[in-house]
Amino acid sequence: MIGFYNYTVILTYISAVSAAAGLIFAIEQNSFAAIICLMISGICDMFDGMVAKTRERTKQEKRFGIWIDSLADVIAFGVLPAIIGYSVGMTHWGYVPLFALFILTAIIRLAYYGVTEEERQDETTEARTAYVGLPVTSSALIFPLFYCFKGLIGATWFAPVYAAVLGLTALAFVGRFKVKKLMSKGMLGLLAIGIVIFVVIIILRAC
Degrees (nearest 5) of the Cα angle 188, 134, 203? Predict the structure, then answer.
């Protein structure tokens, strides 16, 4: 079979599968399960790079890793948040352009990152220190965090406010500003925040 199947890409594959499951849940109006799938994809993406660095890879394996990660990210952090919007009430046809904008900006940002990362790796072996624009993986924290306030915002206003967050996030994906790449401590901090959000979502679900 074509492709690479060693452990360095396993988390990326799990992220893609989780995102696909999230899409099914979102289409079936199960926004809670879809949000959980989004967070699982986020955790996988957070650590896939660290796992990949534990093995000496060929140039082809490195480039495959870049592109398979981006393709999985399109599903998990580009398409899934938009369809979650549908599951929380953005069902009017007028929201379709916003869905398209969000998905398109995520694709553009990921393609831009893929091209620039390949060029960077051809020039240096040093680790990247910053990104241009908001990384699409931020969707794994932004939308679950926002989901925690669903009860406070109320069913009537949640869809329009979610739409506003979706639009602002889309613009941030392609914004020309630098975002510092988090190192190990920063990633652990984000993981801690994610765990707190997960616990809050579970508690609110149980209430």
Answer: 50
Three-state secondary-structure class, residue 129: coil
- In one-letter notation, the amino acid at residue 147 is Y
Residue 40 confidence class, pLDDT cut points 50, 70, 90: very high
pTM, rounded to two decimals: 0.91
39: nearest Cα among 168, 110, 137, 105 = 137
Measured CA to CA, the distance from residue 52 to residue 8 in angstroms comes to 4
Write the single-letter amino acid at 120. Answer: R
Share of the chain above pLDDT 90, in %: 60
Give residue 50's Cα distance to chain centre. 17
Taking Cα atoms as reference points, which of 174, 166, 159, 171 lies closest to residue 142?
166
- Predicted confidence (pLDDT) per residue in 126-152, tens digit: 767 778 889 999 999 999 999 999 989
Q: Can you say whether the dihedral through the CA atoms of 94, 89, 138, 76 is positive or negative?
A: negative
| DSSP H or E segment with residue 66 | helix 59-73
Distance CA 196, CA 187 (A): 14
- Both tokens of 1, joined, read 């079979």
Predicted pLDDT at 119 = 77
Which one-letter DSSP state was computed for residue 180? E
Tokens 């352009």 correspond to what residue? Answer: 97
Is pLDDT of 21 > 90? Answer: yes
Q: Measured between alpha carbons, how far is 3 from 157 in angstroms, rounded to an integer?
A: 45
Residues in the chain: 207
